[in-house]
Design goal:
The chain contains 9 helices and 8 strands. By secondary structure, the chain is of the alpha+beta class. It has a 6-stranded antiparallel sheet with strand order 3-6-7-8-5-4, with no helix packed on it. A two-stranded parallel sheet has the order 1-2. Helix 8 packs across helix 9.
C-alpha cells in the first residue's frame, strides 16, 4: 500500500529499457485518501504517513459504508478487468481467474521474472491505458482528463522524504563489527560498528531488500545512521517475498541459510528463466 502511494505521488521516470513512447505524467500528493477496511489501511503506519505528508485518511467501516454509492465499486474494479483482458491474458504463464478453466500449459509456459512483468505493465499503462479514451470521459484520454482537472501544478515532494515516510520498517540490534541480521541475510554498513549492541530501526523497500536504511530512535526523533548492504548481494535485486521463498527452499533441502546460499538461489533462478525462454524459442522455431 505504502509503496503504491509513494509511486502515485512521485513524478515517474523510466529508463530506455522500458521502451516507452509516452510519459506517465501524473503525480502529486492527495488531499484525501479513501480506503476500504483492509488490514494495511487500518495500520498506524498509514495514519503516520497522512500526518507527515498532510493528507486526510478516510477509512470505511465494515457495515456496508465502504463506498458512498454502489456504482463506485465498478469504477474501482473495472481497471483490473481491463488489465486482465488486454495485458495479462496475452502473456506466457497466464492462469486466469477460474481454476477450472486454467490452461493446462500455463505453468510450463511461464518464463517472466517479476522485473520483466513490471516493465510490460508500465509500458501498457503509459503507452496504451493512459492514452486511451474512456467513453465516460467524453473525447479526452485518461491523461488529458487528469491534466484538465488540475487547478495548479502539484507540489513536488522529494524522493528522500517519501522514502523515509513510506518504506516498511522493523527493529534489529547491531552486532559487533557493525553487522545486522534481517530475513536470514547479513548486512554491513559504514560507521555502524560504533553502535554495537544498540537497537535500531530498519527501513526497507519490499521490492528490493539488498539495501536497507538504518536509523537510531532518539525520543520522538529518528537519526539516520547509514545504508547497510546485504553482503555478496550488492549487485543483485531481491524482493522480500523472493528472499522468504528462497529461505524455505534452502531449509527444506537441509542446507544452511546464508548470504552465499541465497545468492546461489538467485543465480539458479536467472539460469532457470533463461533456459525456459530458450526452450520456448526453440519450440516456436520448430512450429514455424
Amino acid at each position: 500500500m505504502a509503496l503504491a502511494l509513494r509511486h502515485a505521488i512521485l513524478p515517474k521516470k523510466y529508463g530506455a529499457e522500458y521502451g516507452l513512447h509516452e510519459e506517465w505524467g501524473t503525480y502529486g500528493k492527495p488531499e484525501h485518501f479513501f480506503t476500504d477496511g483492509g488490514k494495511d489501511f487500518r495500520s498506524n503506519h498509514l495514519q503516520q504517513i497522512g500526518v507527515q505528508l498532510g493528507f486526510a485518511c478516510h477509512l470505511r467501516d465494515s457495515y456496508g459504508a465502504l463506498r458512498y454509492r454502489p456504482s463506485e465499486g465498478g469504477i474501482v474494479e473495472r481497471p483490473f478487468g481491463t488489465l486482465n483482458t488486454d495485458l495479462f491474458s496475452t502473456l506466457p504463464g497466464y492462469t486466469g481467474s477460474n481454476v477450472q478453466e486454467r490452461p493446462e500449459e500455463a505453468e510450463k509456459e511461464a518464463c517472466l521474472t517479476l522485473r520483466e512483468l513490471e516493465r510490460l505493465l508500465v509500458r501498457y499503462l503509459v503507452d496504451k491505458y493512459n492514452q486511451s479514451i474512456d467513453a465516460r470521459l467524453g473525447d479526452q484520454t485518461r491523461y488529458q482528463r487528469w491534466e484538465a482537472g488540475l487547478i495548479v501544478a502539484p507540489d513536488l515532494i522529494s524522493e528522500e522524504d517519501l522514502r523515509i515516510c513510506l518504506m516498511k520498517q522493523t527493529r534489529r540490534s547491531i552486532y559487533r563489527g557493525g553487522y545486522l541480521q534481517f530475513e536470514n541475510l547479513t548486512y554491513r554498513g559504514e560507521n555502524l560498528a560504533g553502535y554495537a549492541g544498540e537497537s535500531v530501526v530498519l527501513r526497507f523497500n519490499p521490492k528490493d531488500i539488498t539495501t536497507i536504511l538504518v536509523y537510531r530512535q532518539t525520543g520522538s526523533q529518528e537519526e539516520f545512521l547509514a545504508r547497510a548492504y546485504a553482503q555478496d548481494l550488492e549487485t543483485e535485486e531481491l524482493s522480500l517475498d523472493e528472499a522468504k521463498a528462497m529461505s524455505r527452499r534452502i531449509r527444506q533441502a537441509g542446507k544452511e541459510i546464508s548470504n552465499r546460499s541465497i545468492l546461489a538461489e538467485v543465480r539458479d533462478r536467472e539460469t532457470f528463466v533463461k533456459q525456459k525462454k530458450t526452450k520456448k524459442e526453440r519450440q516456436k522455431e520448430e512450429q514455424v
